[in-house]
Inverse folding.
């Protein structure tokens, strides 16, 4: 019983995932990159369920970076189609599960109908309180910081770290405890730069579509074994 309590205490409250490797997953199978993105969405749906089922309260997924918008138009059109389908098919399911949906990123870079779908999804799930799913779409950490700086400058106010956090897209969302990146690269790629100051990082060699439930549990076990010191010394 005591052990179980410790386990629960070591479950991250907020897990952020950089879902990378769709293109290479497809290439290895001689499939077009679009097939990799489709497989990625399928895995994303099951991963979200698996994380909330384990009691994680906040799940943030890096779905599209601001920099990804410089990819070929054909690939972007495919990604936008997948986003449209995602919102059409999943908002009501999230609502039924009492999960609030939020989107972070620069909406002005997205097609108008996707912005509408985002706004409707956020509105429909606004009062859901069991968990929170945050999708990073057209998101860049530096851009988010610069937007917040400009808000502070326009207000003519000096900020504290706390007040600054409240100017970011992630205001009211606790910093991620664990960040998982699939796809073998060991970098952050402009994700949650401010928020990840003390986040535990976990890198997986698996391409995102093949990152399994077992792989999730391995990441959570690894997290549970870490000692978070936040700059202090161990007591
Ligand atoms: C991640 O997979 C999904 C997006 C960035 C939209 P990639 O498309 O980056 O896949 P790789 O890294 O080329 O394998
Ligand atoms: C990061 O992956 C962005 C997402 C997973 C959405 P990228 O494939 O864009 O990252 P880099 O280019 O390898 O750094
Ligand atoms: Mg990639």
């Amino acid at each position: 019983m005591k052990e179980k309590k410790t386990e629960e205490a070591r479950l991250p409250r907020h897990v952020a995932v950089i879902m990378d490797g769709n293109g290479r997953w497809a290439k290895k199978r001689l499939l077009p990159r679009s097939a990799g993105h489709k497989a990625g969405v399928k895995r994303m749906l099951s991963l979200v369920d698996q994380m909330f089922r384990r009691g994680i309260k906040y799940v943030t997924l890096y779905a599209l970076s601001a920099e990804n918008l410089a990819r070929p138009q054909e690939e972007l059109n495919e990604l936008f189609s997948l986003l449209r389908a995602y919102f059409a098919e999943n908002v009501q399911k999230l609502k039924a599960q009492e999960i609030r949906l939020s989107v972070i990123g620069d909406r002005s870079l997205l097609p108008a109908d996707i912005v509408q779908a985002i706004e409707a999804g956020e509105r429909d799930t606004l009062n859901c309180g069991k968990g929170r799913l945050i999708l990073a779409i057209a998101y860049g950490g530096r851009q988010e910081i610069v937007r917040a700086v400009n808000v502070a400058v326009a207000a003519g106010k000096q900020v504290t770290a706390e007040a600054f956090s409240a100017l970011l897209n992630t205001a009211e969302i606790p910093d991620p405890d664990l960040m998982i990146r699939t796809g073998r690269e060991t970098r952050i790629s402009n994700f949650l730069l401010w928020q990840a100051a003390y986040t535990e990082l976990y890198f997986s060699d698996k391409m995102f579509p093949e990152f399994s439930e077992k792989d999730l549990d391995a990441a959570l076990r690894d997290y549970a074994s870490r000692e978070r010191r936040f700059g202090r010394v161990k007591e």
